[in-house]
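Anyone? Bumping this.
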Amino acid sequence: MKVDKITELFTQELKVVNMGLETFADNLTELGVEAQQVEWRPPAGGDPEVLALFDRLEANTTLDIDAANAEAVSRIQQGKPTLVDIGIASEVIPGMHKKLILHAGPPVEWQDMAGPLRGAVIGGLIYEGLAKDAAEAEKLAASGEIEFDPCHHHDAVGPMAGVVTASMPVWIVENQTYGNRAFCTLNEGLGKVLRYGAYSKEVIDRLNWMAEELAPILRKALELRGPIDIKNIIAQMLQMGDEGHNRLRAGTSLMIRELAPYLVMLDEPKEKLSRILAFMHENDHFTLNITMPACKSVIDAARDIEGSSLIVAMARNGTEFGIRISGLGDRWFTGPASVVDGLYLPGFTADDAARDIGDSVITETTGIGGFAMAAAPAIVKFVGGTPQDAITFTQRMYDITVAENDTYQIPAMDFRGTPTGIDVRKIVETGTLPAINTGIAHKDPGVGMVGAGLVKPPENCFRDAFAAFVECYTKGATL
Amino acid sequence: MKVDKITELFTQELKVVNMGLETFADNLTELGVEAQQVEWRPPAGGDPEVLALFDRLEANTTLDIDAANAEAVSRIQQGKPTLVDIGIASEVIPGMHKKLILHAGPPVEWQDMAGPLRGAVIGGLIYEGLAKDAAEAEKLAASGEIEFDPCHHHDAVGPMAGVVTASMPVWIVENQTYGNRAFCTLNEGLGKVLRYGAYSKEVIDRLNWMAEELAPILRKALELRGPIDIKNIIAQMLQMGDEGHNRLRAGTSLMIRELAPYLVMLDEPKEKLSRILAFMHENDHFTLNITMPACKSVIDAARDIEGSSLIVAMARNGTEFGIRISGLGDRWFTGPASVVDGLYLPGFTADDAARDIGDSVITETTGIGGFAMAAAPAIVKFVGGTPQDAITFTQRMYDITVAENDTYQIPAMDFRGTPTGIDVRKIVETGTLPAINTGIAHKDPGVGMVGAGLVKPPENCFRDAFAAFVECYTKGATL
């Protein structure tokens, strides 16, 4: 029987499937034999150390990582981020106090902070009245009297420098399925703003206006209207050319529609109401500071799931890029923050650019932003690409995720759900890194925004996280 | 030399391009000869009468139709539709008076009017106080005392029944390049509304509120803000999932953003302002009545160009579909209004449907709407298609147009300009009919909207227009 099969094989017309080296297939084709070439590369680029880690993981037969990830991604799918209120940071953010400054990304101390984060800290201290100028603020920041902590350690997220101080107003988004909350400051607009490291008088004045006029009035309008379903808003945005991280023109339009009928009902001077509506209208990134805590509130419900290799946080502080894994608790795995590949505002070049910074990559972590790039071809056009590039970006992300979003859909991909739930195993196995859209800050404190573009995170943090995951879940296992 | 060429032909290996009957190519392929089949059909389906018309047209060697069309489409490209004001129909629409009722589509008299148009006329007469109920209105409409005229004869357009009466408020859009203006009533929302033939008390009450509160207040806000560039708004809409005819979610959002900061500045009771903002927010078709006169003001500048075969109006009155040709002055060429292929609201079926009605096809005539379907895949999904179907719809329209729009671009087609400037010659030659999106009214007066879908216009009106074009431009020519 066995011989017959072999005889059969060598006597019939050959149709060859060739994996790996293409020259074998080329030779066959030249000889007139049908040969199908399959692009294949060994997992993890064939790195023996990483392959050993995969072997070790497989040896722990009681661990069902896929089931743990299914549970994690099901929590992501079921999340219902809802905008419920605006509060003052010190009153609503757990552990917030006057001498604590929250910042974007993984932990970093004053002496290691990048220019834009330093600038924002200086601005934050001046805004809080703890320093009267930059020199005093720098001295205070270096004195040890001020505590620094990641936003992520306090249920918060912050775009770019991400600085949150005690008296700043913050959006409150509640995940109505799981009851947890997430916080984010209100968006200041583009250009010379605190989150890009600027701290001039106009920056501080704007922050004061936001705390004294913008936030209290928006809060009243929101109270009158009732909670806003942000999952629905994000789903609509993706049908309207936004990806929720760097393009939010539709999202901001939709938020204005939701709030305007209630804003006008308030007993407030019309000049104030008009200024608020114009402020929202003139800043398409207004809604970024709502999609970010929406994503944070959703993914926080997928944290701390035993055995899950899903990434539950990606964040950068301008010095380091860091990630957290669901099954590995509060640990950060970090690598050096990358240089952004972007376009620059007039008068600036790549030499002016700070490295990758901000918590806004929480959007990618939750399946929108760069992962939904195909929904926002205008962004790729801005950086010189084509709509097909945008689709390719999104398509690649299915290789490193475990599910398709059941609510966030991409029209240009036949309404396919966005790639959701990043599995660190898949990143290490395929070598495909998460696609991230981002803004670019000036490298020096006090300047502000200089451009926008795309960025690749450092590969080592994913490898380190994977190694730690294997270590954690194979204790006592023998090979 | 000639013999040599023939010898060469019959001695070399054959590579055949076959046009027409596929069986010739099939035979060659079977014999191992490389044969490329080209899909080809004779122009105008080989109709000898139409082919004779093309021959006759060619015989007039002094006529340069392409140059005339280039001039017409250049006027379309250069048009700058700008929302400048709101006025009362009798005060701003040329020739408007108390006993004149404007309607959608080509001319039609009371006895030939379709159900929804009759319903809207009844409602219009009640609204004007010329009749106190439907019976009285029908009697008056049939008496000869009321004059009926197409909106198109008065620089106006109207969606669905398109009824405009003397005291209705209308948007005023000015084509700032050419100075001409176009008019359109304000959108009432969906469901039981006058334009779908409903005339109950709620319909008349809403029209009164629109004239007494909505229009005067919007007018003041617009005055405070200054003119709004509608070309820019439409260009943005197409980047945000709208096609400007049946999907206007982005367009309505953008208009709310533009107006809200000025609405709140007015000395008006806040309840009124909130009602207006909520009315716009709850009706995504609000902006249709702005994109329509924008398109009308643009294409009117391309009318009456000697020798141009471009279509400068398509419109339906529920009984007939009619078109006008730039080089043929004020004449209408009509065919029977079609049945719409659509989806129905709960409780209604195709048996309830009126035939195709409305001036909204002015959007397609000017290169958006169905011609920009690829920009709005959500519409095709609604009627059961795929995003690829939407792209196919738009792609076909390039076969019957003379240019690509230089401002309105489609992201999913690599930002290609929308197909713009419909050439009646190309429709007759290819047999490809314009793609039109539309709403569906109930066939009886007084009911309202029952669905939405896609519709094919009647082929004969394009043939008739082409025959008249040939007749007009070949007088005295000999064959």
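Late reply, but here is one note on the structure posted above: Chain B touches chain A through 38 residues (CB under 8 Å).
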